[in-house]
Design a protein that fits this description.
Layout lengths: L1 E4 L10 E4 L9 E10 L2 H8 L13 E9 L11 E4 L2 E2 L5 H4 L10 E2 L11 E5 L3 E3 L6 H4 L3 H14 L7 E4 L5 H12 L3 E6 L2 H9 L4 E4 L5 H8 L5 E6 L6 H6 L1 E9 L12 H6 L3 E4 L5 H12 L7 E6 L3 H10 L5 E5 L2
């Protein structure tokens, strides 16, 4: 079979579409013929170099395809199922896993980072990672769902406990997690303020259910947030940008507000005024990936038609280098997808 592999860290030239032996599958596992995958920021970080990544590595975390064979203990009726891959890996035995906090597991990983990923013609996963999806959903859309939906749901629901009468500020409307976060917050009944960098992206954010859209190139974000909230600030800030936005995020918070962060694409250093933190009784929450319950919660919203994957552009898998370059340009709104047909 063919797969994308990296043998060393670096630029897009390290992404090699090459022949490799087909993976073996065992009891409790299934073989999936991949139809589509999508890119995440994790793919860029892995390609450029994250310590501990096993090389050579097949990158990629999000995929959709068809189960073509099953291992011992798996019902053969699953053959032919259209499935999306839930990319979180965990031991399933520790105290965290027993409590449904799989993303706290010391063995927790993500396919395409700690283990072989999905950018291949065929992949092997545990049966509980292969989730059936509606016939109304395309493979490209299904491949754009899991990681960003699971992450966003974990942030807003499981960590920040966002309520219907609250206001949330979501950075990066055009990103995968941002575009999904807008929809989840809207589905919860919250008032959504979001931020983008072009008029076109602002309009697309509005179509996803954002109530207030700010352009960071032309608006004073902090002043606008204070105006929208009558000077009170927002209840929740959905952070994944990091160093460049952190000060505004903290200053935008209301009394008792929560900042929840899953990443730092602009840098990891951040200032924190402890006086404001305890006097205003605010909370800073870290969030990594999402538990199985987060995936199931997001999937329920998808099946109810309350949220939908946002696909920006589709590349053939053989053009993965170009797809990475486009993704890094920041021009997309939503997910960049790779097709295997």
């Amino acid at each position: 079979m063919k797969a994308v592999r990296i043998h060393e860290h670096g630029g897009t030239d390290v992404l090699k579409w090459e022949e490799i032996p087909r993976q073996k599958f065992y009891a409790g596992q299934v073989l999936v013929d991949v139809k589509a995958t999508s890119l995440n920021h994790l793919d860029i970080w892995v390609r450029k170099g994250i310590p501990g990544v096993p090389l050579p590595l097949i990158p990629g975390s999000d995929a959709a395809g068809i189960i073509s064979a099953v291992g011992e203990g798996v019902d053969e009726s699953r053959i032919g199922d259209r499935v999306m891959i839930q990319p979180l890996t965990y031991c399933g035995k520790c105290e965290f896993c027993k409590k449904g906090k799989e993303n706290f597991c010391s063995s927790m990983g993500i396919m395409g980072e700690n283990s072989q990923g999905v950018n291949a013609e065929h992949i092997v996963v545990n049966i509980d990672q292969a989730n059936s999806f509606s016939d109304q959903l395309s493979y490209e859309a299904a491949a754009s769902f899991a990681l960003v939906a699971q992450t966003s749901y974990q942030m807003l629901v499981n960590r920040a406990n966002l309520q219907a009468d609250e206001t949330v500020l979501i950075w990066g409307a055009s990103s995968g997690v941002g575009s999904m976060g807008i929809q989840i917050a809207n589905a919860l009944g919250a008032t959504v303020i979001t931020i983008a960098g072009t008029s076109e992206k602002c309009e697309k954010a509005r179509s996803l259910g954002a109530d207030h859209i700010l352009n960071y190139k032309t608006n004073d974000i902090l002043s606008e947030v204070k105006s929208i909230t009558n000077g009170l600030g927002v209840d929740v800030v959905f952070e994944h940008v990091g160093q460049a936005t952190w000060d505004i995020s903290m200053k935008s918070l209301a009394r008792g507000g929560r900042v929840v962060t899953c990443g730092a694409t602009t840098g990891f250093k951040a200032n924190l005024n402890l006086n404001h933190l305890f006097f205003k009784q605010q909370t800073v929450l870290g969030s990594t990936m999402g538990s199985r319950s987060a995936f199931k919660g997001a999937l329920a919203l998808l099946n109810e038609g309350k949220i939908n994957p946002v696909v920006d552009r589709i590349f053939p898998i053989s053009e993965i280098q170009s797809a990475h370059e486009y993704f890094e340009s920041g021009d997309q709104f939503g997910k960049v997808v790779l097709s295997y047909e």
